[in-house]
Amino acid sequence: MDTLQHDGDEMEWKESARWVKFEEKVEEGGERWSKPHVSSLSLHSLFELRACLQTGTVLLDLNGHSLPQIIDDVIEKQIEDGLLKPDLRDKVSYVLLRKHRHQTKKPIHRSLVDIGKSVSSTTNRSPARIPPAATNLRRSTEDLRIRQKANYGRLRHAQSRSMNDISVTPNTDQLRNKFMKKIPKDAEASNVLVGEVAFLDQPLVAFVRLVQSILLGGVTEVPVPTRFLFILLGPAGKAKSYNEIGRAIAALMVDELFSDVAYRARTREDLIAGVDEFLDEVIVLPPGEWDPNIRIEPPKKVTSADKRKSVLPLHELGQMNGSVGGGGGGGPGGAGSGGEDGEMPAAHEIGEELLWTGRFCGGLFLDIKRKWPWFPSDFYDGFHLQSVSAVLFIYLGCITNAITFGGLLGDATDNYQGVMESFLGTAMAGSVFCLFAGQPLIILSSTGPILIFEKLLFDFSKGNGIDYMEFRLWIGLHAALQCLALVAADASFIVQYITRFTEEGFSSLISFIFIYDAVKKMVGAFQYFPLNRDFKPDDITTYRCQCVAPDAVNTTLFNTSAPLAPNITNSSLSDPVNLTALDWSQLSKKECLKYGGSLLGPSCKFVPDLALMSFILFFGTYSMTLTLKKFKFSRYFPTKLRKLVSDFSIFLSILMFVGLDGLFGLDTPKLRVPTDFKPTRVDRGWLIFPFGKNPWWIYPASALPALLVTILVFMDQQITAVIVNRKENKLRKASGYHLDLLWVGLLLGVCSFLGLPWYVAATVISIAHIDSLKMETETSAPGEQPQFLGVREQRVTGLIVFILTGTSVFLAPILKYIPMPVLYGVFLYMGVASLNGIQFWDRCKLFLMPAKHQPDYAFLRHVPLRRVHLFTLVQALCLAVLWALKSTVAAIVFPVMILGLIIVRKMLDLVFSQHDLAWVDNIIPEREKKKERDPRTPRAPGRDGKGGGRGTERRRRRRRRAAGGAALAHGEAEPRLPPPSVIKIPSDLAQTDPQNGIHCIARKRSSSWSYPL
């Protein structure tokens, strides 16, 4: 918005405010822009604006080519309508064609030096000093003079005087303006010009919409084409009123609904109807309770235009400000994507990936068909700087996990599977899965239940004289075949019954396991390296430790590198020496113990405070990662630098504390990576032979324990896939539940033949992978929070991570400098970060909050607090049972208990109403299928000609919902309408009148407008 500034006889348009989404004002000092804030408009200014549009000039679809021509048409229309005296044409034109000075330009007394000259002085300039743009503009103006009518002579004279004030091409300041980065692509400008002049008796108002947007050169701050122009010139003395009207129209033009009306309006009445709709939604603040000078900070979330387009009456939408029927506040604790006032949360939608086809491998073939078109983009989409930070983060998590589980597997299986097998299996299984699976964002890893199964299987084999590796091979082969059978039968459709209750219970359990293990390992450091609590500074003179020689009767040879007594010469080293000749007081602690000596003294048990240093590295890595991850929301440094630091937060934290550890030089426990490519046990090879060591009946009997492995793999894999594919992540590429399970089953068999650990989807690491690849809008309006766009879906990061894991044997000289407490800190961060956005965790925190301090979650508006607490307690009890099972030998039935969560959730239908469950969980799909079908709807024949199957009926129901009101065209008496908002009528099904055409009318409370199709 530009306001007219006067400096004696000179005038210019000075930019005073701008809107992209929120308002920014030029501060009184004129040197800077204000912070973006919500426009606080007076109700009177909106009514005055409405009156201006009723009485002023409205030109819709004006064919404009330049600002002088647009001004010419506006003035001519004003004169035709009797709104402007003809003798004021020159003065109005002169004012409207004055130079525009933006915030980045010089003040008026400097910028007007070269432009406030007459036409004669301009023509006396040297041709070399005239810009090419001005020359071309004068030539086009001369042509225009010839074509225009004679009565435009005075206007042409005014234009000739003003030509040097308006440039048609963007100047250098405009092209270099960094504000251009904040403007969305293909944006169009709306210029508002307001001012007061002495020669007018009544306001001159014009609203102009161009047929096609054009660049008006220096009129706009940045080189954005102009589509709309609002002009308000009035008599002197009402500058503040004119300014408020200008702010009102500017705020209206950035409103999504009114902007849509402005683009589609055919008449003046349509614009006025749009203003009325805006007024219907305006919220008035009492002047005695609010200071208009206070600038309202932009909200983190605003109601979308789709929600506001609802055509339901106000009393059906529920009252504002949190009535029983209200919603809103659908923050992180909201149910699904719902949470708006009066609107039910999003239903538990079932994607076509989980529909039961009824055909052999039908779901698998559809998965391949859906994923194939995306396969090339899965590679070139990964070439981005953000992928580098994701690779570093997930790689460190994977190798830490591989070393941890490898060591535990070695202890549980007597080193039949160790760290080397864990590294090789992780690299091979992960690479193949990321290359060919349906959801490459899932990270494969060993899990706790598999570790417990391996331990129980080894103990059983050892106690019954069964060869462990051969028995394990047959179990793996049976489990692989069972997984393939599940794929062929489309068994993944069971996943549709996994609701938020089961998802959050499982993911919370895995997150707590990560947190618990990280803290447990850190506490273990205090046991290995206890703090020196008994140290007394006053007794420091008594602290000593000496090496005492063994009994004199015991003699032996010793290493010639050991220190000798002064009377022993080098010539005697080749002969056996009695230990009594050794100077024991000069030996180190290791040498003393090596040669059979003993340590004596109060300081012999001294250990450096490695535990305290380990805790600093552990908690420092976690805290620094958390801080740097939030750094992109900081006020310091440019946006690009903040985002870069946030993306590489984990790598920078690890680098910082590895350097801190090296600076102190303490012997903290370091990362140990195998350096030789060979099996952990020397008596086993890389290939397990399936026959010869066990009785024949072991081979078919292995199918029974394999069933437990299959259930475990199926539940772990599919629940993690549901969490990764949830709609909150906005994944646009198709998922592939059947294809994922196929490759997990095949890899299960391959790993069994190679004697490698079994791998399945790792929930926490997969969630961390998703978080590290989240994308946000690169350009956002000032004051607007960056919008989450989705996840960078590709196969490159996972592939590189697992390739690096396989080559970690060669990176051992570098990795050995990383302290283990630093990696434990990364584990802690992964566990805590994966709890973010889990509604169960948000509901748990409500127990510690008084009601008046609780966040404005959507489910709290619709469900009584005691019911919310009851649902949370049930979920927490289930989680406690799972934790207890995990910590005992009963963990082998852990996958069966995951299935039990689905049963518990089904039983909750008897305790909670469907309304409550819709807000704190999801409605189980089975309830939809039990609804009585409309008897008027004919049953479409299925493949057998007798009626549609379950999937056919579901697809038919979706088509009816998508068609909406199309049934009206076919004469259905009571068509099923979609829930709120708009009834979509396909144009090819609606009745048409060739003469009069169709007019779609959208009505909302107090007014309506219509647009011909």
From TrEMBL:
InterPro entries: Band3_cytoplasmic_dom (IPR013769), HCO3_transpt-like_TM_dom (IPR011531), HCO3_transpt_euk (IPR003020), Na/HCO3_transpt (IPR003024), PTrfase/Anion_transptr (IPR016152)
Compositional bias segments (type: Basic and acidic residues): 929-947
Stretches that traverse the bilayer: 390-410, 422-453, 473-497, 509-529, 610-628, 648-666, 696-715, 736-760, 796-815, 822-841, 873-904
Taxonomic superkingdom: Eukaryota
CC annotations in GO: basolateral plasma membrane
Principal location listed in the UniProt entry: membrane
Recorded catalytic activity of this chain's protein: 3 hydrogencarbonate(out) + Na(+)(out) = 3 hydrogencarbonate(in) + Na(+)(in); 2 hydrogencarbonate(out) + Na(+)(out) = 2 hydrogencarbonate(in) + Na(+)(in)
Band 3 cytoplasmic domain mapped to chain residues: 1-292
Bias kind Gly residues: ranges: 323-339
Coiled coil: none
GO terms for biological process, alphabetical: sodium ion transport
Compartment(s): Basolateral cell membrane; Membrane
GO molecular function: monoatomic anion transmembrane transporter activity; solute:inorganic anion antiporter activity
Topology of the protein relative to the lipid bilayer: Multi-pass membrane protein
Disordered: region residues: 320-344, 929-999
Domain spans labelled Bicarbonate transporter-like transmembrane: 359-924
NCBIfam families: ae (TIGR00834)
Family from the record: Belongs to the anion exchanger (TC 2.A.31) family.
PANTHER family, per the entry: ANION EXCHANGE PROTEIN, ELECTROGENIC SODIUM BICARBONATE COTRANSPORTER 4
Protein name: Anion exchange protein
UniProt organism field: Ornithorhynchus anatinus (Duckbill platypus)
